[in-house]
Amino acid sequence: MPLPKAELHLHIEGTLEPELAFALAERNGVNLPYADTEALRRAYDFADLQSFLDLYYALMAVLRTEEDFADLADAYLARAAAQGVRHAEIFFDPQAHLARGVEMGTVVEGLWRALGESEAKHGVSTRLIMCFLRDESAESALETLVEAKPYLHRITGIGLDSAEVGHPPVKFREVYEAAAALGLRRVAHAGEEGPAAYITEALDVLGVERIDHGLRCVEDPALVARLVRDRIPLTLCPLSNVRLRAVDTLADHPLPAMLDAGLLCTVNSDDPAYFGGYAGDNFDAVHAQLGLKQEQLRELARNSFVASFLDDDEERRARYLAEVEAYVF
Ligand code: HPA
Ligand SMILES: [Zn+2]
User: Fold this and answer.
1) Which of the ligands is closest to the CA of residue 14?
2) pLDDT at residue 83, rounded to an integer
3) How many other CB atoms sit within 10 Å of the CB of residue 216?
4) Which of 25, 28, 238, 306 is the most exposed, having the fewest neighbouring CB atoms within 10 Å of its CB?
5) Which residue is closest in CA terms to ligand 1's atom 5?
């Protein structure tokens, strides 16, 4: 039995495995410019975040109907459950779908078909987090929030993703204020490729409660001290960092030093279909290649539930935390 954990940094569009991409392409009459799944997998050789994002957005062409989004999410939840994920807070990128003529309702209700039955079917509780694309305009983000208003009963929070450098958090001040006024929780990607200053800005200007990635905080000791003091969670994604060349090899990843510094680190998969592994695979990799001890893996699992948005269900959080403490490696 795998270690129980929460996954807090997971883009549902990044769980599109080549096999499902081809199946959905056929169902929807979409032509993919790859001969087969092997040829597609060979394209997963990324130089940086942008080269990944180009393929990530292109493959979304196969996602058209509620059924497609439901199948995508259900496949993820089945895989996650098999790797010990008990709770998943799932990102989605509505602008990438709206731009292709797929409506907000198709995306949210499609995802919800799978999320709504996830507990009964997979034993995984879920939350949905709507991300804005930071390389799109602030106006577009505000319009997207308006489009989402009929579906806010399904959406726990907002996030910020896509190309980071040159798109600082302050660009999205207004939409984060509007979302806060609507009672939405706030997170943002910061310090993946962008500088540590973007992490500080996300905290100060956007009022985020968690930082997605946050890897580059290590370049700013005063920021590290603040993150430790304020118990700000970081949703790290080790295998993603290797595949997108944020670190040279997994052995170079600062996770052990970050844990030693007292940072509230969590380990997540980001875009598992593209980056070589789901949540449990990331835990296995930091154990095998970064030398994290079993008790450090338990700390990461504990942190994942502490950092989760289970504040509306403390009884459940306590149950999950008890599972972590009782786990025998
Ligand atoms: O790792 C990521 N970083 C930024 N944007 C993203 N969108 C999907 N995955 C990512
Ligand atoms: Zn991400």
Assistant:
1) 1
2) 98
3) 20
4) 28
5) 162
